[in-house]
Amino acid sequence: MKKKIAFITGITGQDGSYLAELLLKKKYKVHGLLRRTSVLNIERIQDIINQYEKKGQLNLHYVDLTDTASISNLIIKYRPDEFYNLAAMSHVGISYFTGEATLNINTVASYRIQESILRNHKRCKFYQASSSEMFGSSPPPQNEMTPFNPQSPYGISKVAAFHTTKYFRQAHGLFASNGILFNHESPRRGLNFVTRKITHSLARILSGHEKKIYLGNISTRRDWGHSKDYVIGIWKILQYKKPEDFVISTGQNYSIEDFIKKVFKIVGLNWKKFVSTNNKKFMRPSEVRSLRGDSTKARKLLKWKPKYNLDDLAKDMLMNDLKLYGMSLEHAKKIAKKLSKKK
Ligand code: NAP
Ligand code: G4F
After folding, report:
1. Which protein residues are within 6 Å of ligand 1, measured from CB?
2. CATH number reported for the structural domain that contains residue 229 in this entry
3. For the chain, which has fewer Cβ within 10 Å, the N-terminal or C-terminal residue?
4. Which residues form the domain of 202?
């Protein structure tokens, strides 16, 4: 049987790297579309490059998502079966400073890709990485029927891309679906998202590289899952018999403070002595106070459900960061004991 061909934008990111691994295991031919950076940024996909690139099952292409021809040429040449659009300026806090660029890459590029699919290869299925940030100030639980009330340029950009996807589906008959994913993390999470910042900084504190973690508002609540579980949801959305929009979430939410407590408890350290909160630099002009997703639709129609809970996730992330600094959990606990006595 002919191997399926998938395109992934954002393959160098957290989700892109896990999704590529999943599809390669499923025998897809994967084409990763990446941007040129002055320092090569392929850390998260180095293992799959080693394993699959020479065999021709993984191909990487430099593309600029503001350049229609660079996208269209690849679609015309390889005629993908599935197109996963994961590339984005994905940091909400930074989007307050780079609103125009955020809209350009998160919204206009999505429009550009879908228009190119429509003109050049209409039977290609399209996935848009939509976000729970779109719900903004709408109170939880949030599902596919909840109104969008975005609170950031990032949220606005994702709402516009969501509607763009619906438009190509309804007006032009594209198989175009939105996955409305709630927060998901992993050891591959970027260092400036709050969960990874906490696990990574704790490893730095224990290894003597840092004294404190400086955070913003720790009262906000998020519904956190594991990226490994969520990329299965992403794939299932495009395997569904028709294009539709799906919420992917755990259904549980916790505050940032709860997450800090969980992580510090793993090594037995009192968090209050090591965390500084409400730092201006990390406060946002408007906040999304509480996200908790109702993913009944995905669980019923896609038979999707997460394996990881927040304790598993916190442990997976912290163990990875301890390892980065040459520590086992036992060693980390010993250092924590000494630090507790010192203060
Ligand atoms: P991520 O780790 O920040 O990865 C983002 C990817 O987009 C990276 O590969 C990045 O390339 C690429 N990218 C950024 N700007 C680009 C540009 N101008 N041109 C080309 N590529 C660009 O994000 P993620 O957590 O994997 O999220 C994947 C997608 O899901 C994003 O669209 C995000 O908005 C959305 N989403 C994420 C979550 C979540 O909680 N993780 C929840 C809902 C939705 P570089 O590696 O070169 O920077
Ligand atoms: O980890 P965060 O930056 O994630 P946020 O803003 O919820 O966005 C993430 O999830 C979205 C899905 O809902 C994605 F679409 C988006 O791409 C991204 O993956 O912040 C979480 C919360 C916020 O309330 C923030 O104000 O943590 C609070 N926070 C407190 N101190 C902090 C910090 N966030 C960051 N990044 N850094 C801090 O020092």
Report:
1. 10, 12-16, 35, 37, 41, 65, 86-90, 105, 129, 131, 181, 183-184, 190
2. 3.40.50.720
3. N
4. 194-222+253-290+309-342
Of the listed ligands, the closest to the CA of 215 is 2
The verdict on 30 and 136 lying in the same domain is yes
Pair 95, 241 in one domain: yes
| Ligand 2 atom 23: residue of nearest CA | 220
Residues 163 and 207 in one domain: no
Task: Evaluate whether 8 touches 30 at the Cβ level (below 8 Å).
Answer: yes
Clarify whether residues 154 and 274 are in a common domain.
no
User: Token match 């709860």: residue?
Assistant: 258
- Specify if 327 maps to a domain: yes
Of the candidates 82, 133, 186, 230, the residue annotated as catalytic is 133
Q: 159 and 281: one domain?
A: no
Kindly report, residue by residue over 224-259, the tens digit of the pLDDT.
999 999 999 999 999 999 999 999 999 999 999 999
Compute the Cα dihedral for 306, 308, 313, 316 and give only its sign.
Answer: negative
Global pTM?
0.98
Please provide the DSSP assignment of 145-185 as one string: TSPP---SHHHHHHHHHHHHHHHHHHHH---EEEEEEPPEE
Which residue type is seen at 50? N
Residue nearest to atom 17 of ligand 2 (CA): 90
Q: Active-site residue 111, yes or no? A: no
Q: What is the pLDDT of residues 71-100, one digit of tens each?
A: 999 999 999 999 999 999 999 999 999 999
